[in-house]
Amino acid sequence: MPVRNIRLTLAYDGTDFAGWQVQKNQRTVQGVIEQALERMHGHPVRIRGAGRTDTGVHATGQVANFPSDLDSIQGERWSLATNSYLPPDVRVLESSEAEPGFSAKESALLRVYAYYLLPAQIGPPHLRRFCWKILRRPNMEALNRLAAVFVGEHDFTTFAAAGDSSRSKVRRVLSSCFYPEGPFLVFRVAATSFVWKMVRSLLGTMLEYEAEGRPPAELAQALAARERAQAGSSAPARGLFLERVVYDGEELFPL
């Protein structure tokens, strides 16, 4: 029976997951999807994601792929079929049959993350799992001047969490900016890839710099220092979303 390469676009509420990657005795996004696929196929199926989101991090555009020897489900029907086996905090938004060489991880050109801040004294309880409530409204222009420091190719050792196993921490950032969206202040960043917990570290550090009135030149020096001690506190996971993954032939912008 021929094996097809199935591509999925996924959304999930990461609150009750120990991240994307399968871990022993932990509930993970990859784990529950593989359990669903095993029930459908009658044997284990390994799925690969474009990004290994951490504990508590959400997604609105995670991409994954897996090999399937089932010939009874058309590519675009995998979304409905798989959702019937998944828990309600994970959904397959779209599905298709991909080229044999497609890899959600290796074929990705860009990954786009968005972090939602809620500047408010009192926050609506239904938003508490999906944003970081802060008690003041930061100066967006000052934050954007700081965010611009990260655009380009840099060594992000300063903003990598302890234990990051990347051999190289050089990453290329194409876009880094803040913008208002309803009651939220959103930080969106697009890069070829990210070091471990990089987005949360960037955001927490920029908020500290903005609050203290420190200039972008100092942030650039911290980046160049390649010392973790130069970074500020990291933002909590709950406001972070893997928003989009971009592949060859797809529009890069808007990011």
Task: Explain briefly what this protein structure is.
The chain is built from five helices and ten strands; from the N terminus they run βαββαβββαβββααβ. It is α+β, with helices and mostly antiparallel strands.
Describe this protein's structure.
With 255 residues, the chain is of the alpha+beta class. The protein folds into two domains: 4-98, Pseudouridine synthase I, catalytic domain, N-terminal subdomain (Alpha-Beta Plaits), CATH 3.30.70.580; 108-247, Alpha-Beta Plaits. The chain is built from five helices and ten strands; from the N terminus they run βαββαβββαβββααβ. It has helices at 29-41, 78-83, 140-147, 198-212, 216-225, and strands spanning 4-12, 48-49, 58-68, 90-98, 108-119, 132-134, 152-155, 170-181, 184-191, 240-247. Strands 1, 2, 3, 4, 5, 6, 7, 8, 9 and 10 form a ten-stranded mixed β-sheet that branches. Helix 3 (140-147) crosses helix 4 (198-212). The longest helix has 15 residues, at 198-212. The chain starts with a strand and ends in an 8-residue tail after the last strand. The model has no long low-confidence stretch (mean pLDDT 96).
How is this fold's topology laid out?
Layout: E1 4-12, H1 29-41, E2 48-49, E3 58-68, H2 78-83, E4 90-98, E5 108-119, E6 132-134, H3 140-147, E7 152-155, E8 170-181, E9 184-191, H4 198-212, H5 216-225, E10 240-247
Parallel strand pairs: 3-10, 5-6
Antiparallel strand pairs: 1-3, 1-4, 2-3, 5-9, 5-10, 7-8, 8-9
Helix pairs in contact: 3-4
